[in-house]
Structure formats: C-alpha cells, structure tokens
Amino acid sequence: MSAYQHILLAVDFSEHDDLVAQRAKDLAEKYRAKLSVIHVLDNIPMPDTTYGTVIPLDKDSGYELLEAEKARLMQIGDQLGAAQDNRWLVWGAPKQEIVQLAEREQVDLIVVGSHGRHGLSLLLGSTANSVLHYAGCDVMAIRLLNG
C-alpha cells in the first residue's frame, strides 16, 4: 500500500469531532498528506440555495445560522492547520457530497466518525456506512461511544 497523499476529514459538529479530527491530523502528519475538511449542511433551511451547492467561506451571507456553521468549520480548519482552500462547506446529502468531493479532489482516504448503531438505525444506515460503501477510496470510520 502506498502512503496516503490527500486525507478528507468529514465533520458533523458533534461533541466527537475533536477525537475524529485528531485521528485525521495524526494520519496526515504520519503520511505527510494534504488534509482537507468538509461539513455538509443538511439540517438547516437554506434560503435561495440549490442542493449540492458549495458555500463560499469568504463571503458574508447575512444568514446567521450559516455564518455560525462557517465559523465552526473555520475554527476546526485552523486547529488542524488545513489550508483555507481545503475547507469545504456544502449544502446537500452528506453521504453524496462527501463521496463527490473526495472524487473531485482526488482524496485517497476519508476519515469519518461512526456511532456503531444497532437495530433500526443500522437498517436505515448512517453517513459513515454510506460513505464506506460508495467511496472510491479508503474510508476510516472512527468508532464513537454512544451516550
């Protein structure tokens, strides 16, 4: 196996992001890989924005919820030392947008948190599970403790 050259960290702004981010950062340092970070907006209404739209991080939208999401992504990117142009805020379906960005940016490892769901949640699937099955590159799912 060759060394990873581009690692994509998918964050959901949960309390577990720090653990997942640290794993991605450690891998990027180990392999001297470029580190990118993506957050997909799927839980806030977006005014006049089409699905699958990349949200510019350098322009003020005037929309308070969106600006808060941008600020959080920028904070994570700063903590990781990810270059400004390697930070992505996208409106859409997380599994689809993560996989598409990974393909477009030639990512060879996606790092995502996984809650290890059981029962009905397992049958319905999760973002980590969907990314694992549809990505054209390696996927590392960091197991998170529920609770």
The quaternary organization reads as: single chain
Gross morphology: globular
Helix share bin: 25-40%
Q: Give Rg in angstroms.
A: 15 Å
What is the CATH C-level name? Alpha Beta
Low-confidence stretches: 118-124
Strand order of the largest sheet: 3-4-2-1-5-6
Query: In the CATH hierarchy, what is the superfamily?
Result: HUPs
First CA to last CA: what distance? 36 Å
Largest sheet: 6 strands, mixed
List the domain count as a whole number.
Answer: 1
CATH topology: Rossmann fold
> Total strand count, please?
6
- H/E order of the elements? EHEEHEHEHHE
User: Strand portion, in percent?
Assistant: 15-25%
Number of helices: 5
Characterise this structure:
- This protein has 147 residues and is of the alpha/beta class.
- It has a single domain (6-143), classed as 3-Layer(aba) Sandwich (Rossmann fold), CATH 3.40.50.620.
- The chain is 38% helix and 22% strand.
- Strands 3-4-2-1-5-6 form a 6-stranded mixed beta sheet, with helices on both faces.
- Strand 1, helix 1 and strand 2 (34-41) form a beta-alpha-beta unit.
- Helix 3 (94-104) packs parallel to helix 5.
- It is globular and about 45 Å long.
- It starts with 5 loop residues before the first strand and ends with a strand.
- Residues 118-124 have low confidence and may be disordered.
Topology, pairings included?
Elements: E1 6-10, H1 17-31, E2 34-41, E3 53-54, H2 64-80, E4 87-91, H3 94-104, E5 109-114, H4 120-124, H5 127-134, E6 138-143
Parallel strand pairs: 1-2, 1-5, 2-4, 5-6
Antiparallel strand pairs: 3-4
Helix pairs in contact: 3-5
